[in-house]
Design brief:
This is SDR family oxidoreductase. By secondary structure, the chain is of the alpha/beta class. Helices cover about 45% and strands about 15% of the residues. The two termini are about 25 Å apart.
Length: about 260
């Protein structure tokens, strides 16, 4: 398949590292104008340089702002042109005793993982509908469907993203705009490596630590390894392309077979 996103502008939230950085790089490689986002100017500038180097494209800019706040979202939107592709990748995660998570932490997870996406969809979808083309993609997780006991607050937010994607897809019906969720499985990023170490300890070499983590905490995985960020990015680039014009309102899995279900 030939995917050409030339002439399209994409914003990838939370894209200074990990999955978001891989998505930004892959979209730029496919020809899109890419806007990288993070909270700090310095980290955004570093990520812009990384995406340019990894994609061979100079058509990469940055927009710093904390999308978990209304002001931060407004700042980012003022800095970007009309969007054709919105990738809501921003998210926080971590393990916690569910009975010890206080109200403030529940609110923080909801603000960062859910409301940041809602704010941007609300701002960008009308213009996409008016222009007759657009792609909105929300990065969900296997935790949306198989809620981990140690990450209930995180799983809740990812389940919410599935509902949001389906609902806004209905709002965009018949306009040429598609809205989908991508269910990412356990993926190797810096944050996940730290998370693995928190659960299995620092004594084991990384390959052994990864295997121990998968066996104990993610035994349902059919590929029996962590997914690489580029594998998630491949699905996002396809869904962002004209080739995926008949796919909307969906929750598409790149989870290594982790979710033990025919449907999400």
């Amino acid at each position: 398949m030939q995917i050409d996103l030339s002439g399209r502008t994409a914003l990838v939230t939370g894209s200074t590292q990990g999955i978001g950085l891989a998505i930004a790089t892959a979209l730029a490689r496919a020809g899109a104008r890419v806007v990288v986002n993070g909270r700090g100017e310095e980290r955004v500038a570093d990520a812009v340089r990384t995406v340019r180097a990894g994609s061979g494209s100079e058509d990469v800019t940055g927009a710093a702002g904390d999308l978990a706040t209304e002001q931060g979202a407004a700042d980012v939107l003022r800095a970007v042109p009309a969007l054709d592709i919105l990738v809501n990748n921003l998210g926080v995660f971590g393990s916690a005793d569910p009975l010890e998570i206080d109200d403030a932490e529940w609110r923080r997870y909801f603000e960062v993982n859910v409301l940041s996406a809602v704010r941007l969809i609300r701002a960008c979808l009308p213009g996409m509908k008016e222009r007759g083309w657009g792609r909105i993609l929300d990065l969900a997780s296997d935790s949306a469907v198989a809620i981990p006991a140690e990450m209930i607050h995180y799983g809740m937010t990812k389940t919410a993203l599935l509902a949001i994607g389906r609902g806004f897809a209905k709002d965009a019906a018949g306009t040429g705009v598609t809205v989908n969720s991508v269910i990412a499985g356990p993926t190797r990023t810096g944050g996940v490596e730290q998370f693995v170490r928190e659960l299995v300890g620092d004594e084991l070499p990384w390959d052994e630590a990864q295997r121990a983590f998968m066996v104990k905490y993610r035994p349902q995985s059919l590929i029996q390894r962590l997914i690489e960020p580029e594998e998630i990015a491949n699905m996002v680039v396809y869904l962002a392309s004209p080739l995926a014009s008949a796919t909307t309102g969906g929750a598409l899995r790149v989870d290594g077979g982790y979710v033990d279900s025919i449907l999400p």
